[in-house]
Structure formats: structure tokens, C-alpha cells
Amino acid sequence: MLVITRREEEEVVIGDPANPLGIVRIVAIKGDRVRLAFDFPREVDVHRREVADQILTSKPSIVGTIRPSGTAGP
Taking the model in full, what pTM does it have? Predict the structure, then answer.
């Protein structure tokens, strides 16, 4: 894990600086709360950990076998 110290209005560039995947900006720090702004393409999912965990537990697991066409299944 990489730990970086930033101040308000400072940014972290994710990926190639010439063509970044995204940018995280520190918007505000008040007490023990930090406000972050994420600038990523729409196709990149960004979730809080508790939401990501919910998504993982709600997805049905798909178990199956891929057979070549023309073969009979059970």
C-alpha cells in the first residue's frame, strides 16, 4: 500500500501523468473528516469500501461448464 501526505487542493495523479487514468483531489479537511474528489472516466467504477463489499456479496456466483458445441449436457 502506498501512503501519501497531501494538503487541501493538492492532487494525486493515477497512471501515466501524460494521459492519467484518473485524478484524486483533496477538497477539504475538517477535523477527522477528509473530502475527496475523484476525476475518472465513466467506465471506471469507483466505490466506497462498504458499497464494494455489498456489490461483491450480492452478485450470484456463476458455476458452470463450457462444452464444445454439439456435445450433450446432463
Answer: 0.70
